[in-house]
Design goal:
This protein is mainly α and 159 residues long. The chain is built from 3 helices and 5 strands. Among the domains are: 73 residues, no CATH class; 35 residues. The protein has a 3-stranded antiparallel beta sheet, with no helix packed on it. A two-stranded antiparallel sheet has the order 1-2.
Length: 159
């Protein structure tokens, strides 16, 4: 019983000691460099390197990192660029294409495996091979038949 209690406490210890490494927004932890749109104020904020919540900067304001700007593009000043939502959609597509291709590949692999398991090797039937009858064969059969009839008639005469 004591071992179970100690094990339970050891499992809870990391959860109780979990510390936010970024900024606290209400009861949520925002990582350094993450941006959020706040419902209360209606503007975007980010968690800075010194772990404080800052308002995201507009175009033309000085900056040091992309996450400081609303556009997610910093080149000493916030600029309009292809980053932000456009880069997110591009990165999503870059993620989506390999994922879809992997799913398609797995589908065909499993389909191939399934069809291979169901198909059983077909056994060749052992049997008599029938060849087409030729005219020579008819003549031979007729001669053999005549000979058999003669032999039977001779046997019947002897009795």
């Amino acid at each position: 019983m004591k071992k179970e209690v100690i094990l339970f406490l050891l499992l809870l210890l990391p959860i109780s000691l979990a510390v936010c490494e970024g900024c606290l927004l209400g009861d949520k932890c925002i990582g350094i460099g993450e941006q959020r749109l706040t419902k209360e104020n209606g503007y975007e904020i980010y968690c800075s390197q010194d772990k404080t919540l800052e308002k995201a900067k507009e175009l033309g304001e000085s900056c040091f990192a992309d996450y400081e700007c609303k556009s997610y593009y910093c080149d000493m000043v916030c600029k309009k660029g292809t980053t932000g939502s456009a880069s997110m959609s591009i990165s999503f597509i870059k993620f989506l294409i390999p994922s879809v291709l992997t799913i398609i590949l797995l589908y065909f692999i499993f389909r191939f495996i399934k069809t291979r398991k169901i198909k059983k090797p077909v056994k060749k039937q052992q049997g008599v091979k029938i060849r087409p009858v030729q005219k020579k064969d008819y003549d031979k059969i007729e001669k053999d038949l005549d000979k058999s009839v003669e032999e039977l008639s001779q046997l019947s005469k002897k009795k």
